[in-house]
Amino acid sequence: xxxxxxxxxxxxxxxxxxxxxVPPGAHEDPASFELLxxxxxxxxxxMSVYSRIEGEPSDFGILLADLFSHACGRYAQGTGQxxxxxxxxxxxxxxxxxxxxxxx
Length: 104
Hints:
With about 100 residues, this protein is an alpha+beta fold. The chain has a domain of about 50 residues. About 40% of the residues lie in helices and about 10% in strands.
């Protein structure tokens, strides 16, 4: 094997040319706009946030709570696991991540 080049299959991309669907009603509502895009890049999270977003810190807390709720529901729907179990597990991971002061 010495001196031989090992050829590896290129990694398959999950989202090859595939964008997530725009939610129902977004095109009909003239006041709707995209708030956030998240990407997993090289095992870390990258995001784009709408730069002209307005509001108080508490408004962003509500946004995060809504995002958490949607994520729990979608994950439970996709896996068939109880949403209450998903919520508990996600919340624990969320709280631990927030408590990791080395990242701040």
